[in-house]
Amino acid sequence: MKQFKIAVIAGDGIGPEVINEGIKVLKNVAELDSGFQLDFTYFPYGCEFYAENGRMMDDDGIDKLKAFDAIYLGAVGFPGVPDHISLWELLLKIRKSFDQYVNIRPVTLLKGAHLPLVDVKREDIDMLFIRENSEGEYSGAGDWLFKGQENEVVLQNGVFSRKGTERIIRYAFETAKKEGRSLTSISKANALNYSMVFWDQVFEEVSREYPEVETASYLVDAAAMLMIKDPKRFEVVVTSNLFGDILTDLGAALAGGIGLAAGANINPQRDSPSMFEPIHGSAPDIAGKGIANPLASIWSASQMLDFFGYEAHGKIVLDAIEQLLLEARVLTPDMNGTASTSEVGDRVTDIIESILL
User: Fold this and answer.
1) Degrees (nearest 5) of the Cα angle 247, 199, 221?
2) pTM score, whole prediction
3) Known Pfam families for this protein (predicted)?
4) Residue 279 lies in a domain
């Protein structure tokens, strides 16, 4: 029997509530398939840990996490802890330490989910965003000069290396080739005359190695407009760290809301763990009320199953989410329902059992 070790960082706010339902689903799938087993180890890292210890994770936290096959993250951030601390000392620290340079965010409008656009068919919203996840605008490079003085100057540098840019674009081409879909690059070369000109150049170079993949390239502002006006033109999308972060939140709004937004941080070499997370944030205003939507967490659990090589099981989890949406009986308040977080998780497991048994 295959055994996978999963480090659980439930995190802050609604994180523990939604991650519990994802674990419930993962355990349910594993119990129904005798071919693999999932072992979960919990780590208390997050803003509460910071309040008690003055740091977001143990000093040797990265060494501890390195022993696992995957990390399952609930949410990061809570009032009282500055966002740049919670982000840089936990989430980004994990991504960078484990070279999780591929961020995968599906923007797919499932049946039963709210369709916010007019004159657009449900099947037109089916994108896979592949976001550079290790450098770019989130490299943390820059300077702060003459603090507090009249001539104060702040420099924030985007770092685009040949290695980093080429490997994410090549990963996107391989994905598009495998799936038989087009690939769109999103940049802003007309304004960012070094980084994005370089990005476009590398995209063009790599594209010559994949003549079978249809390509397109858009400026980020035009892409934002076209995602709303004509979303069907986007299939597989590759873009930089910042643009991917922004556009996938727009994508979440197109694909049923932030409660359905899942993300995977992948180390393709598999020499360090990859990390799976809902991307909706910690929502401290509803934490502890038992009404948080766990579907994004459950969707990210399906991404984990895909990563472990159990794509059929991952699809079953997505099918179960879709059936739950179509039934429209067990939904949390953000989806105009009255169900609790745990009731949604229970219903998803019931549907999975009905599919597998």
Assistant:
1) 35
2) 0.95
3) Iso_dh
4) yes
Residue of 12, 69, 245, 306 marked catalytic = 245
Asked if 188 is an active-site residue, the reply is: yes
Active-site choice (45, 50, 72, 138): 138
Distances (CA, A) of 14 to 148, 280, 338: 37, 10, 17
- Is 249 assigned a catalytic role? yes
- Whether residue 108 is contained in a domain is answered as no
Q: Which of 221, 229, 230, 232 is catalytic?
A: 221
Q: Which of 188, 218, 306, 310 is catalytic?
A: 188
Quote the crossing angle between the two packed helices 341-356 and 295-307, to the nearest 10°.
40
List 249, 334, 346, 350, catalytic entry: 249
Three-state DSSP class for 87?
Answer: helix
- Identify whether residues 222 and 126 lie together within a single domain: yes
221 part of the active site:
yes
Which domain range does residue 128 map to?
A: 115-255
Separation CA 25–CA 72 (nearest Å): 13
Q: How far apart are CA 133 and CA 138, in angstroms?
A: 8
pLDDT digits (tens, 9 = 90+) for 262-305: 999 999 999 999 999 999 999 999 999 999 999 999 999 999 99
Per DSSP, the three-state class of 239 is strand
- Confirm whether 138 is a catalytic residue: yes
